[in-house]
Write a structure and sequence with these properties.
The C terminus is likely disordered. This protein has a single domain, classed as START domain (Alpha-D-Glucose-1,6-Bisphosphate, Chain A, domain 4). It is 23% helix and 50% strand. It has a seven-stranded antiparallel β-sheet with strand order 1-7-6-5-4-3-2. It is of the alpha+beta class and 122 residues long.
Length: 122
């Protein structure tokens, strides 16, 4: 398995509650990400994001109001990554850390030959 991750922390001139309100509102989140967003903001909630680099389906995995939001998102080609947004108060400011981690699964050794054997038996 190959794991690729990108991490970025930005400091925002707003308290965490205000930043959270923007992340938790699909319209505002869509403005930030660059396209229309529909999102059921609860663990197990589903959504769709139309982004400049392509549409994604979304599965919300964690919600901790005011502190943390995570989801899995994937494109129609099957490429999938996990996104984590973490808020931390820094005085009157908020540090927002964004981590996107793509996991690219490699086929199991021998899986093609096993499939071929099953096809021959059928």
């Amino acid at each position: 398995m190959t794991v690729t991750a990108v991490t970025r922390t930005i400091t925002l001139e707003a308290d965490p509650d205000r930043v959270w309100d923007n992340l938790a509102d699909p319209e505002r989140l869509g403005d930030w990400l660059g396209g229309p967003t529909e999102l059921d903001l609860r663990p197990g909630g589903l959504g769709r994001m139309e982004l400049p680099d392509g549409d994604r389906s979304v599965l919300v995995t964690e919600v901790e109001p005011g502190a943390h939001l995570s989801w899995l998102w994937w494109r129609e080609d099957g490429s999938t990554s996990a996104v984590d947004l973490t808020l931390r108060r820094a005085g009157e400011l908020t540090e927002l850390t964004i981590v996107e981690q793509a996991v690219l699964a490699e086929p199991a050794a021998g899986s093609a030959s096993a499939s071929a054997r099953l096809a021959v038996r059928a």
